[in-house]
Amino acid sequence: MDHDDKKNTVIASEQYLVRLGIKTLLNVIGVESDLHEVNSKEELDAFIADGQKINYLILSDDLFSKHGFIDNNQLKNVSHFCKTLFFCRQKNSLCNCNHFILHSNNRKQVVEKLEQFFFEPVALSSDKDSCTLSDREIDVLKAVALGFSNKEIADQLFISINTVITHRKNITGKLGIKTISGLTVYALMHQMVKAEEVM
Known about the structure:
Blueprint: E1 7-12, H1 16-28, E2 33-38, H2 41-49, E3 56-60, E4 65-66, E5 69-70, H3 72-79, E6 83-88, E7 99-102, H4 107-123, H5 135-145, H6 150-157, H7 161-175, H8 180-189, H9 195-198
Parallel strand pairs: 1-2, 1-3, 3-6, 6-7
Antiparallel strand pairs: 4-5
């Protein structure tokens, strides 16, 4: 995700718990964005009509569904101007969204799809090796995920604290994830550490 300027993310759902859950997950994976919530199609239309810039839109099907059906024309009108992730019961082939989270997805799938949605530009970098962590960076990331301090990591790996800090900067730069909780989730998702080790 481009960190040069603050991005705007809109979470659109009639359900408070859906909006809260998405906000919590975005915090966990380290998304840095100004978050805005809307709870109706009318509120979303007003947000757009007001000229508010939207970089990322997370759109729940409850805003559009009536009796279980989604108006594809409405959805197309909303999602054509920004990167859109659709939270829905089933993937709709007529929808022009490229990103979906299904109600039936488990926690790991949801986190992976959110990471892909927000951090995809990093993965598509022209330098294919820019996201590849070195062996030493993986060692540092594992230690960070396990809750060790910079000094403890330096002692374990027989390197200076300044070197640890440099590795951590490189890791966050390559992955686009700045929070410890986000790095921990990344380490868990890529089987670098086990869940019971970080509890």
